[in-house]
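Researcher: Next entry in the queue.
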Amino acid sequence: MNNIILSGRLTREPIITYSQGEEPIAIARFTLAVDRIGDDKADFISCTAFKTKAEFLQKYCHKGTKILVKGRWQTGEYTNKDGVKIYTNECIIESIEFA
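Model: Structure for this entry, 99 residues:
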């Protein structure tokens, strides 16, 4: 089972883009600062939301907004222009609510 629940604050404004095609889909990319329990440190988690969740982020969430997200962890890889393989990790958002 691949489920993740995070509570944290947006580190900056969400970046909204739209897919190409007949029916463009909103895509929001943002970073969530999640405090570690019992520690003064935070982890910075890359997140991606689609469709209505992306539009919700664009309309209501800004730098510093505290939210609770539920989603799944996704890994990926690609080769950059220099021929170096880059590995990615991100949370794909399935639901969002204010915290």
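Model: Residues 11 and 78 are 25 Å apart (CA to CA).
Researcher: Noted, moving on.
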